[in-house]
């Protein structure tokens, strides 16, 4: 196990900062997901930690040792890329053994370590096969085994399952999480998949424009987003813009009491925090679409001023296009200038959180 420290890490291409003075501490045995859209700097940051990209500035420390300027082969890191990068002319065992042979280990020790790695990733008995004889998921397991067999202190995973179908991707990420916890290896996992980050990480670093927007546990990133970008990027979130006046969010379809100063603000609502009831009159949000997901229905609503938000309802609900509804809100967050100013998830007043209704 090891501790990774990144201090004011920076990477510039001409006048563009791909990574903009990012600092991050990863504890022993922790798995942190770097999550963000394309161009947010997450892969560039991972490549600098692995030694495949030279930083413009900052430091990278592993167990207190400065590795900022060391080449990849001299760093105690193992990296798994999105492309499997297997040598097609070598067997599976040959691919895994390659790095061990460069260390001039005895042949018997190399064989034992390869067998251990194959067993670890669920490919015992596959050593004599060629890469082209494996499925995409099996090839990625070989790539993972090739990194783990070298016993790195830090495991770096750069969107390793992006090219796989969803079902296989979900299964492999669970297997990787099990292996990571079994070995207790400190891990950085780059992904643009929200579900992936929420499912396997101890903490999530949400990146935007080369900077960390929020670094927190999955439940806090989802339920207590600190910026409007994070709120919109993680999961499904509906945004409603209106004025706060006299302590209330003034919107034709939703009038909430809020303990913030007057002025423009953006209300953020998760679908599962919106409760629908039949409207008592001809006014109110209208159902645009209702989609049956089996376990629940997702109902898309159009509000009076044109905004669209989504609500999650029970599988037994029967909302149809054109229905008028009344909204009740369980939880919400309020943003100004992209920063959170109020979150009912942090409000101790249970009655306030229980049912905030526009009558």
From TrEMBL:
SMART domains: AAA (SM00382). Gene3D superfamilies: 2.40.50.100, Nucleic acid-binding proteins, P-loop containing nucleotide triphosphate hydrolases. The keyword Transcription regulation does not apply. It holds the Pfam family TOBE_2. Transmembrane segments: none annotated. Belongs to the ABC transporter superfamily. This is Spermidine/putrescine transport system ATP-binding protein. The lineage of its organism: Bacteria, Pseudomonadati, Pseudomonadota, Alphaproteobacteria, Hyphomicrobiales.
């Amino acid at each position: 196990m090891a501790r990774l420290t990144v201090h004011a890490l920076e990477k510039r291409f001409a006048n563009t900062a791909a990574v903009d003075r990012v600092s991050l501490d990863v504890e022993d045995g922790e798995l942190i997901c770097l999550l963000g859209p394309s161009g947010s700097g997450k892969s560039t940051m991972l490549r600098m930690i692995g030694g495949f990209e030279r930083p413009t500035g900052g430091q990278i420390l592993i167990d207190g040792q400065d590795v900022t300027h060391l080449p990849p082969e001299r760093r105690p890191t193992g990296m798994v890329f999105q492309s499997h990068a297997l040598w097609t002319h070598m067997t599976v065992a040959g691919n895994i053994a390659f790095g061990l042979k460069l260390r001039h280990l005895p042949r018997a020790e190399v064989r034992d370590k390869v067998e251990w790695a194959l067993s670890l990733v669920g490919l015992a008995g596959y050593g004599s096969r060629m890469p082209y004889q494996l499925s995409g998921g099996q090839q990625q397991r070989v790539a993972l085994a090739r990194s783990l067999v070298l016993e790195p202190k830090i495991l770096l995973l750069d969107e390793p399952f992006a090219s796989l179908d969803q079902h296989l991707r979900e299964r492999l990420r669970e297997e990787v999480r099990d292996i990571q916890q079994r070995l207790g290896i400190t891990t950085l996992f780059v992904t643009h998949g929200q579900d992936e980050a929420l499912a396997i990480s101890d903490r999530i670093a949400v990146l935007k424009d080369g900077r960390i927007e929020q670094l927190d546990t999955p439940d806090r990133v989802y339920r207590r987003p600190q910026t409007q970008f994070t709120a919109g990027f993680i999961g499904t979130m509906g945004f409603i813009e209106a004025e706060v006046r006299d302590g209330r969010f003034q919107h034709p379809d939703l009038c909430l009491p809020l303990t913030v100063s007057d002025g423009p603000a953006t209300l953020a609502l998760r679908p599962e925090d919106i409760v629908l009831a039949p409207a008592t009159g001809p006014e109110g949000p209208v159902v645009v679409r209702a989609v049956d997901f089996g376990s629940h229905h997702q109902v898309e609503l159009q509000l009076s001023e044109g905004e669209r938000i989504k609500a999650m309802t029970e599988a037994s609900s029967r909302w149809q296009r054109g229905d008028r509804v009344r909204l009740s809100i369980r939880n919400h967050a309020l943003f100004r200038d992209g920063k959170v100013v109020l979150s009912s998830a942090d409000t101790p007043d249970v009655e306030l959180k229980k049912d905030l209704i526009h009558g």
